[in-house]
Design brief:
The protein has nine helices and ten strands. By secondary structure, it is of the alpha/beta class.
Length: 256
């Protein structure tokens, strides 16, 4: 099982801070994630999860600290980082007046992918998520879950080495959720690093090699579920019990 203690982590976050005015949303976050690891990033609402993820993907700049993705500094070379990463946001944006397949070609074109390749690979992903029958229909007619599956399919087109996903299971039916979990496992076996943020603790418990718990911008706990049980002095507790025990008290981001 992969862990983040190797000499060459795929994701390396060092003393990361992000401030919005007087509010410190992320505070001195240091974290390493290994190649092929499925890492769960958990925390209460407002804990700093999405802010951290946006920094990992170059959508926000850190106030201080450093983030390396496969040794590439996200601030110095964001384009190179985007070439090797895939990002699924908690509220992804799509163009409603495109069809599903047109959206796949749009995203593939951003990465300079060949149209024949996009047709072949794109339809495979759409078939995986039961979207082939609506591939030529406008996205405006898609349900939330269908849109989520389309975004995931499009992100996988360029075969990212690092896959960052924020609440990927929201809106998915049980079959699609199972497909996505199996996909995560398959990607990790191929050496892809998956950085997963979710409120669905049962998914994190069954899927993740390690879990990091962030609260009020600070990393409160890090390790396997067994490690966290030990920290919480709860040898038989599930991740929900452990999470609640380790995050007792305020879950607000503290102004400084």
């Amino acid at each position: 099982m992969a862990n983040g203690n190797g000499a060459d982590p795929v994701i390396a976050i060092h003393e990361l801070n992000k401030r919005f005015g007087r509010t410190l949303a992320v505070s001195d976050l240091t974290l390493k994630v290994a190649g092929g690891e499925l890492f769960g990033f958990l925390g209460p609402n407002g804990a700093g999860k999405t802010t951290t993820i946006k920094i990992l993907n170059g959508l926000l700049l850190p106030t201080s600290g450093r983030v390396l993705m496969k040794g590439i500094d996200i601030e110095k070379d964001p384009i190179s980082v985007k070439r090797i990463t895939g990002y699924v946001a908690d509220r992804p944006f799509l163009y409603d007046k495109l069809t599903g397949m047109e959206f796949m070609h749009f995203v593939g074109g951003l990465y300079g992918l060949d149209k024949i390749y996009i047709d072949r690979e794109g339809r495979q992903y759409l078939e995986m998520f039961d979207l082939v029958d609506v591939a030529d229909e406008l996205i405006e007619g898609y349900s939330h879950g269908m849109k989520q599956k389309l975004v995931i399919s499009s992100v996988l087109l360029h075969r990212p080495e690092i896959f960052v996903v924020d609440e990927p299971m929201v809106g998915l039916d049980p079959k699609s959720a199972r497909t996505l979990k199996d996909l995560f496992r398959s990607l990790c076996k191929k050496g892809v690093t998956v950085f997963l943020s979710t409120h669905t603790l049962a998914i994190a418990e069954t899927l993740c090699d390690r879990v990091g718990i962030i609260q009020a911008g600070k990393l409160r706990a890090l390790g396997s579920v067994a490690d966290l049980r030990s920290m919480a002095e709860s040898p038989s507790g599930d991740l929900e019990d452990i999470f609640l025990k380790l995050t007792e008290g305020t879950d607000e981001v503290v102004p400084t």
